[in-house]
Design goal:
The chain is of the alpha+beta class and 254 residues long. The chain has 8 helices and 10 strands. The protein has a 5-stranded antiparallel beta sheet. It has a 5-stranded antiparallel beta sheet with strand order 2-3-4-5-8, covered by helices on one side. The longest helix is centred in the N-terminal third of the chain and has 25 residues.
Length: 254
């Protein structure tokens, strides 16, 4: 059984919220997107992305797909179709030219989670006392980090930290990175835009997650507390969070 909660906020600096999120509890699909582009087109791109994902998921039953390879192929097809829709719209509407969006998607089937991401919106898993980042950012700073040009400390406040190298709708085609992992009882999955992970360290995220590990409506409270902490730390960007908790006991009727 999956408990889910979410929160989205424009932050303390931005005038509008260009993030979007999607929760499909029946299909066990969860999405966070962060739009980019001027003249409100970033907001348009992120909302269009989650809407297109919802349409695709309702037309293609992921739970009925048998093997991991077939599922991966279907998730890639989803990303291609969403990208094509946003890219074509961008080409057809001058006021939306150049719009694009990051996207991170999580699909849960039984005791396994599947992720796909484009851009720097992230997925984390908190397991026991540890938290680890599942996805890898498609960003200029992460490229420098992987090459060893800069350190992790230098990456935190890099002047070009907002530059992403891959996005939905930015080009005629895009490739998403896929990840999968078995889930354990009590695992907490965090999907978030960079407005969260740019403001909060993993240690701070862990403390907030652990403080909201149990109780009624705990995932909504967890998401709200994470967003509030990001705003208290500066709130320099829109921030959106989806929190998911795997509860195996409830699923087994114990």
């Amino acid at each position: 059984m999956i408990d889910a909660g979410f929160k989205s906020d424009k932050g303390r600096v931005r005038e509008q919220n260009e993030d979007a999120c999607l929760i499909l509890p029946v299909q066990q699909v969860y999405v966070v997107a962060d739009g980019v582009g001027g003249n409100n087109s970033g907001e348009y791109a992120s909302k269009m992305a989650v809407s297109c994902v919802a349409d695709f998921i309702r037309e293609n039953h992921l739970a009925d797909v048998k093997g991991d390879n077939e599922l991966a192929a279907l998730l890639r097809k989803c990303i291609r179709e969403v990208n094509r829709t946003i890219y074509q719209t961008s080409m057809e509407l001058p006021e939306s030219r150049g719009m694009a969006t990051t996207l991170v998607l999580c699909f849960i089937r039984e005791e396994r989670a599947y992720f796909v991401n484009i851009g720097d919106s992230r997925a984390y898993i908190k397991r026991g006392s540890s938290i680890f980042q599942v996805t890898e950012d498609h960003s200029y700073v992460n490229t420098l980090l992987k090459l060893g040009v800069i350190t992790r400390d230098e990456a935190k406040d890099h002047a070009r930290g907002n530059i992403i190298t891959r996005a939905i709708g930015a080009e005629a085609s895009v490739q998403g990175d896929l990840y999968q992992t078995d889930l354990e009882d009590g695992d907490v999955i965090i999907l978030c835009t960079d407005g969260l992970h740019n403001e909060l360290s993993e240690d701070m995220m862990t403390k907030i997650i652990e403080a909201n590990a149990a109780g009624p409506d705990s995932m909504n409270k967890m998401a709200s507390d994470l967003v509030s902490a990001a705003n208290d730390a500066g709130g320099r960007d829109n921030v959106t969070v989806i929190c998911l908790k795997n509860r195996r006991e409830a699923a087994d009727g114990q």
